[in-house]
Amino acid sequence: MTELSYLEHGHSLKSWLLTTDHKRIAILYFLSITFFFFVGGAAAALIRIDLLTPEPDLMSNEGYNRAFTLHGVIMVWFFLIPSIPNTFGNFLVPLMIGARDLAFPRLNLLSWYIYMLGGLFTLAVLVLGGVDTGWTFYTPLSSMFANGNVILAATAIFVVGFSSILTGLNFIVTVHRLRCPGMTWGRLPLFVWSIYATSLILVLATPVLSITLVLIAAERLFGVGVFNPALGGDPLLYQHLFWFYSHPAVYIMVLPALGVISELVSTAARKPVFGYRFVAGSSIAIAIIGFLVWGHHMFVAGQSMYASAVFSFLSLAVAVPSGIKVYNWTATLYKGHIALDPPFLFAMSFIGLFVVGGMTGLILAMLAVDVHVHDTYFVIAHFHYIMVGGTVSAYFGALHYWWPKMMGRWLPLVWGRLSAIFIFLGFNLTFFPQFILGYLGMPRRYHVYPAEFQTLHVLSSAGASVLGLAYLLPFTYLLYSLRHGEKAPPNPWGATGLEWTVPSPPPQHNFHELPTVDGPPYQYPVEPDTKREGAHG
Amino acid sequence: MNRLLTFWGGQASHHAHQVDTLFLGLATLAVLLSAPVFILIPWFAVKYRRGKPADRTHAANRSVWLEVSWAAIPFLATLAFYVWSTRLYIDLYQPPAEALAINAVGKQWMWKFQHPGGQAEINELHVPAGRPVVVTLASQDVIHSLFVPALRLKQDVVPGRYTRLWFTADTPGSYALVCAQFCGADHAVMGGRLVVQTPADYGRWLEGMGTDGSLAAQGAVLFRTRGCSGCHGAASTVHAPPLEGLYGRPVPLADGSVVTADEQYLRDSILLPQAQVAAGYPAIMPTFQNVLGEDDVLKLVAYIKSLANAPPPTKDRDDGGPP
N or C: which end of chain B has fewer CB within 10 A? Predict the structure, then answer.
């Protein structure tokens, strides 16, 4: 019998906007997140164009400050944090654990509406003239001195935080309660482990940010002295609260990507992930230790010398589980059957860039070096290697890997490989020069700079234009594949995992009968459903 | 080796050399730790390409000792660098007692420096080579950060508290001095130069600068003109703590705790007098928050510090309050 897929089950706008199907909600997130990715990207383009010359030419000082603030706010809260969990997590967690939906389908839809409400506030900030504090909202600049739309921007982030909290809660309950018979914790796909670890952070850290934003609003609107010393407050208190959320938030952004890479590497090599327990456990370790390193953002802020020494040590410790993952992926490839398909090229790109980002993070954790490179382009380059080189590469890897499952269509593999390569090259050209700029002493958030730095800035801007075009490329051939792509079989890559046992695209309720699992994950070999050659295009 | 890193701004101090050496060591460590990944992944991707014949027997799925070793060995290697870098950092908190004390105030969007002799300059800081200098940093408004790339040093300037930055510049020359912490519209142009001079040149420069007397003397003038002496002066009849011999001493507070009268305490007592009231005195001091700028407060603090070893006032205090 043929059953209607989730895509065919109703075509009206209402059937999408009132859906409680986790797969449709994933698509809603995918569309809205893609929109914000390009809005944030447009702000980045303005920044890179302005930095082509040492003089301010495109934007005024105020305009530039608003551009980088908007870039940060949109990319962090409206793209990176929801990116992989809310699209691929939403789509895949129930399929991967053998469930028919998330534990709270209506709450899931509500989360999307809350996300959109926050997004509307952010667009209002943009239309009304922006905000000029930087995405970090440091006090007392944000609470007393800035003249942009601080309250509105804080409201946007406050609102979208509830979307994060509810999504995290939904995943936690789902993983605890809705695993199919036989799907023990030790048999969960590693992507589910990473989403689970991420959800713990979402639920535990986000409320701290919400409270902090309320305090900023209270100080700005009513003069309640919390952070401003002139009112008896303490500006460092703000930094502690902000980074207590925002450092774990870095792991919200990167842990799901680590989970994606485990799936991609295992499928590409047709081998189980080397050391499943270590890789799964390292996600939980990152989530826990990630809560204890926030002070490394404050080595020159005036916190105590002893606090800095402790935070430096813990920051080295949090690198250990990340290192385990990278070395274990390498070992996974040993004696594998490796196919250089687009998802694997994105995974290799991820690993390379994540290693550079991680190693420079280790360097930044060193106190005496951080005193020099803190608040310079070295830091900018470091976290873009993690967030963009890492998370965005994994996001595109996931998009290529699960596209046939989500849309039921093959994608052109040649174009997929090309875009992986262009994104990798464009990324490195954009951000590697920034490491050098930073060590030379170029501070961040400068729209004018000494002439000596121009060559490196021009290189970086040139890379950004390659990167921008390379990011557009997948959207053209993926759209093309929706209409012209070959129909995808249930398991085109020959992968393990319950999501590959159902048709592509999956039926509305995922499984006719709930599956039963009787063995560990990643039991290769699995033969793909069609000859791969037919899929090339 | 460090000539490799003689970048823009150069190296103006021994500390800069040390940071560069540490950085090169760390970069080497980073290359060594990531080399296995960068070499093996492409190698495996070629050697074990799907469909290509290769020996694939005995492929393990786990190996606890292997995994523990690639967790532990890199961690232990980084610990050695941790000790090295933390020692360098701790040095930054221990300025030598004989260091030349300079005051700096950051405000949107300029730097104001003042030398002990009272010479003031804006967006330029002249210092003698070879002598330790400790800069006490105050902010008039938001957080700034004094960053001298050639010294490989920066320190945030936080409103409401004094922070310090000390260094010994070895090589005369002119170096960039910038603000590293985003501070609003003109953050990018809030900068100037650090001018390192030979001691003789520095001495001549100090003489050439006009000054209204030393920092402490300027503070003494403020002490009279701003009305401080009305209560704290020798002739006062108001029940207020005497300031002679106060600096560096423990001060019992009304809430029962005891603080040391350091620069921070003196500043706070002028700007936020109700926060820490000295025991035995009525809390009647008004705040000078909207009257005195941070640079004026620094002068008053310098004046009060200059009284540290002064004899106690020889007036007839009618209150007999605690000394």
Answer: N
Contact map slice: A 471-530 vs B, CB within 8 A: none
At residue B317, the pLDDT reads 45
Task: Give how many domains chain B has, as a whole number.
Answer: 3
CB contacts < 8 A (A, B): 261
Residue pLDDT, tens place only, A129-149: 999 999 999 999 999 999 999
pLDDT over 50 (residue B5): no
Q: Are residues B247 and B298 in the same domain?
A: yes
% of chain B surpassing 70 pLDDT: 93
We report the CATH number of the domain holding residue B298 as 1.10.760.10
Could you list the residue range(s) of the whole structural domain that residue B68 is in? 2-49+62-91
Task: Give pLDDT, residue B322.
Answer: 45
For A64, which residue in chain B has the nearest alpha carbon? B185
For A18-57, what is each residue's pLDDT tens digit?
A: 999 999 999 999 999 999 999 999 999 999 999 999 998 8
Residues B190 and B144 in one domain: yes
Q: Please name the member of B38, B84, B186 whose beta carbon is closest to the beta carbon of A352.
A: B38
B137 part of a folded domain? yes
Q: Which long-range CB contacts under 8 A does B67-75 form with residues at least 24 apart? A: B67/A275, B67/A278, B67/A324, B67/A327, B67/A328, B70/A323, B70/A324, B70/A327, B71/A320, B71/A321, B71/A323, B71/A324, B74/A319, B74/A320, B74/A323, B74/B33, B75/A316, B75/A317, B75/A319, B75/A320, B75/A323
* Contacting B residues, span 126-155, partner chain A, CB-CB under 8 Å: 141-143, 145, 147, 149-150, 152-155
A368-385 pLDDT tens trace: 999 999 999 999 999 999
What DSSP line would sit under A279-346, residue for residue? Answer: HHHHHHHHHHHGGG-GGGG-TTTT--HHHHHHHHHHHHHHHHHHHHHHHHHHHHHTT--B---HHHHH
**Could you say which of B37, B60, B180 has the minimum Cβ distance to residue A355?**
B37
Q: Is the ipTM of this complex over 0.90?
A: yes
- Fold (CATH) for A23-511: Cytochrome C Oxidase; Chain A (1.20.210)
Are B123 and B181 in a shared domain?
yes
For B182, nearest residue in chain A (alpha carbons) = A445
Average pLDDT over residues B202-225: 92
Q: Does B178 touch chain A (CB under 8 A)?
A: yes
Residue B263 lies in a domain: yes
Mean pLDDT of the region A79-99: 97
Q: State the pLDDT confidence band at A536, using cuts at 50, 70 and 90.
A: very low
- What mean pLDDT, rounded, does chain B reach? 90
Residue B320 lies in a domain: no
State whether B108 and A145 contact (CB < 8 Å): yes
- Assess whether B168 and B185 both reside in one domain: yes
Specify whether the CB–CB gap between A122 and A163 falls below 8 A. Answer: no
Based on the fold, state whether residues B105 and B204 are members of the same structural domain: yes
